[in-house]
Amino acid sequence: MGVEHVTAFLSYLAVERGVSASTQNQAKAALLFLYKEVLQQNLPWLAEVVAARASRRLPVVLTQREVRDLLLQMNGTMWLVASLLYGTGMRLLECLRLRVKDIEFTRREIMVREGKGNKDRVTVLPENLLVPLQEQLQKARVLHHKDLGGGLGEVYLPDALAVKYPAAARAWGWQYVFPSPVLSDDPRTGKRRRHHIYEQSIQKAVAAAAKRAGIAKPCTPHVLRHSFATHMLQAGYDIRTVQELLGHSDVKTTMIYTHVLNKGGRGVLSPLDSL
């Protein structure tokens, strides 16, 4: 296929099929991979085909009352994870990948390791979650001792740490705060290990809780991160502080939450109310 065929195909996806910009760009990336890696053909013009630009969308944000109602419909580990997402602004996988050593109770902070962009950052540890988190760590410790007693107890270590520190994989500090209730085989090494709980479990729990709470808005774990940022700005915290807590590299990304604040009844006075 030549440049005109590829361009026509990508246009067909957008115009005839009505796919989103991300789907169109995924199709382009697939063609690039096909020619470069499979067909072993270098087609520089394919990389120059203009990528579709995603439309700007404002994030879904829950009110504080809706967050309260959502959390009241949850319990146990699912409640704790959802509370952490809202209380810290972490992404779902950042929360599930937390290690024991990354929680500092005395300074009330959480170290988020290898976040988006492979960056570390520090976020706040809500005071209301100090006791529930300590109880969760006790449960995780019991599970870890059980695994050690069965000749297991290893956890996945990032990069080459498993080679550099062979004993670290069984150390308590490296264990997941939210370990999976079942053991599984690591596809990278074939070793029997205990991974963290699956993100799908949290997603399903949040969706079910939102339904029970009667929340009509689309509700996912990431909505709790959006709500954290918006409510922090509403509380008067400066945008730079919120940017650091969220781990955004550019303040422009954080500024989208100011647009949420400036819309609707909180930001403007409707002319109807002046009649």
Automatic annotation (TrEMBL):
Which key words are in the record?
DNA integration, DNA recombination, DNA-binding
GO MF annotation: an example: DNA binding
Q: Where is the Tyr recombinase domain?
A: 57-270
Highest taxon listed in the record's lineage: Bacteria
Q: Which Gene3D superfamilies match?
A: 1.10.150.130, Intergrase catalytic core (1.10.443.10)
Q: Which PROSITE patterns match?
A: CB, TYR_RECOMBINASE
Kindly list the biological process annotations in GO that this record carries: DNA integration; DNA recombination
One Pfam annotation reads Phage_int_SAM_4
Domain called Core-binding (CB): residue spans: 1-39
| Alphabetical list of NCBIfam families matching this protein | integrase_gron
- Protein family (similarity comment): Belongs to the 'phage' integrase family.
Q: What is this protein called?
A: Integron integrase
